[in-house]
Amino acid sequence: MSQEKVIVLDFGGQYNQLIARRVRECNVYCEVHPYQIPIQKIREMNPKGIIFTGGPNSVYLEESPVCSKEIFKLGIPVLGICYGAQVMAYLLGGSVKTAPTSEYGKTEVTVDTDKALFSGVASDTVCWMSHTDYIEKAPDGFQITGHTPVCPVAAMECPQRGLYATQFHPEVLHTAEGQKMLSNFVYKICGCKGDWKMDSFVEKTIQEIREKVGDGKVLCALSGGVDSSVAAVMLAKAVGKQLTCVFVDHGLLRKNEGDEVEAVFGTKGIYDLNFIRINAQDRFYKKLEGIEEPEAKRKIIGEEFIRVFEEEAKKIGAVDYLVQGTIYPDVIESGLGKSATIKSHHNVGGLPDCVDFREIIEPLRLLFKDEVRQAGRELGIPEYLVSRQPFPGPGLGIRIIGEVTADKVRIVQDADAIYRQEIANAGLDKAISQYFAALTNMRSVGVMGDERTYDYAVALRAVTTTDFMTAECAEIPFAVLQKVMNRVVNEVKGVNRVVYDLTSKPPGTIEFE
Ligand code: XMP
Distances in Å between the alpha carbon of 57 and those of 11, 61, 417? Predict the structure, then answer.
């Protein structure tokens, strides 16, 4: 299937996939490649445009990443962003230096609205800056199309050669008109028509999976969450009964969740799938005995999962591929991109080094959560499954701070079920991106029926977010919180205190561990 494509060359910035996603939002297919990609490969891909990402380096230092100058001779429009703008300036004879004043955060930039890149944009527009170097002088033949009081070249271009650059980041939402600028780049400058929609991604991926798998057997790690459900249905469409979905009930699921997953994907469910449920609660609890450290728990749960799958694979015999519903934020936060490791996400960093399958297939690896939901809708998955809030692979294991025991699982399951019920009763379930109860490791003194209690505190968490990379605490009406508190302390044995977590991400994370 031939379709328009814009490629992003990754110079090590944190927003590389975000740029790709913003371009896809313009209905233009976009993928990320390393900045060293051979020129011949770019020619073969025949992209309509190229975008250079930002990056943490200084272009004038010897070891810093720069691409080949040949790229500018391909006749393909290039947009350099932040470090990418500096790479363009440096390679084409401009001057890049440490800025006398660095800029960080929302900054008003004056742009030339006669130019195609800024068409329809306000002449003074708020943009997200994050730089300590700057382009002191644009290369010969370039016009300066944007500036701030301290940044003489906030944007520059040489339209005759199809070259454009911005010192600021149009891809982040803090740049008020950034999406407009990217849309101008792909439509007005690259001449794209916008032939990409999620259905093309789904179709293309299904085709690629078919070609890769051939007549091999595939095992899918199905948790019943949005990501693995979408991955499973995609695989089922691609390879039908060559796929077996294995659902491991590790005893760390939400209340009644095991049965709910079986009701959808099992023999009496809505899909014609090979489905196996493994009840492995005791096995996981035993492995987690005495383990308190979050990363250790994550690795144990991740590894045990894989061991269970391997055992199932052996029973089925000759399984070549393992499918996982890994999505882009999992990859980034597990430190497999260039950012620091925040948590080893189950699916990714939580995997043991040695996995007994020929290959792992992760069809959603480049998508953000809302894109995965869109893919799910394209696949015809019912809305109540597609719009489910996310649930992490290690499950309640990372919502119980400290050691996991069967009794603590019971407490957090019961408290969480009440919380979810009350949020739904209040009609808030669609407005909050993710909400759950967690069990703190704190016990404190209370009084109940004239008796002293010394019990656990349950923490309630609720956040709003679009990409799950950053999040805000959701403002739940006090009366709803009070009702949940009342029910939890009255109905859940072992809890005498309920707290509400106000932390945003950053500095917190959404899960507790
Ligand atoms: P954090 O806690 O890192 O979570 O802010 C961001 C989003 O990722 C989910 N999450 C996970 N999902 N495996 C997953 O599949 C994991 O190990 C994992 N850890 C966190 C979390 O629920 C939130 O939606």
Answer: 9, 8, 48
Give the tens place of pLDDT for each residue, 256-293.
999 999 998 999 988 889 999 999 999 999 999 999 99
Which residue's CA is the closest to the ligand 1 atom numbered 9?
392
Q: What are the pocket residues of ligand 1 if the criterion is a CB atom closer than 6 Å to any ligand atom?
A: 329-330, 333, 343, 345-347, 390, 392-394, 434, 468, 505, 509-511
Give the number of C-alpha atoms closer than 13 A to the C-alpha of residue 242, restricted to the C-beta side: 20
Q: Is the separation of the CB atoms in 357 and 219 below 8 Å? A: yes
Determine the atom of ligand 1 nearest the C-alpha atom of 393.
Answer: 13
Identified catalytic residue from 30, 82, 220, 245: 82
**What does the alpha-carbon distance between residue 213 and residue 234 come to, in Å, rounded to a whole number?**
13
Contact 166, 138 (CB under 8 A): no
Please identify, by atom number, the ligand 1 atom nearest to the C-alpha of residue 369.
Answer: 24
Question: Which residues neighbour 308 within 8 Å (Cβ) at sequence distance 6 or greater?
Answer: 246, 248, 278, 280, 283
Q: What is the pLDDT of residues 217-229, one digit of tens each?
A: 999 989 888 999 9
What are the respective helix, strand and coil percentages of the chain, to the nearest 5? Answer: 35, 25, 40
Active site residue 169: yes
Q: Which of 346, 333, 345, 508 is nearest to 438 (CA)?
A: 508
* Confidence category of residue 199, pLDDT binned at 50, 70, 90: confident
Is 192 in contact with 183 (CB distance < 8 Å)?
no
Q: How far is CA 133 from CA 65, 90, 96, in A?
A: 15, 12, 7
Handedness of CA 357, 349, 306, 470 (dihedral sign): negative
State the catalytic residue, choosing from 169, 250, 345, 346. Answer: 169
- Partners of 80 in the β-ladder: 52, 165
Q: Which of 43, 47, 42, 16 is nearest to 29 (CA)?
A: 47
Q: Answer yes or no: 31 catalytic.
A: no
Phi first, then psi: give them for residue 96, nearest 5 degrees.
-120, 130
Tell how strand 434-448 and strand 472-473 pair up: unpaired
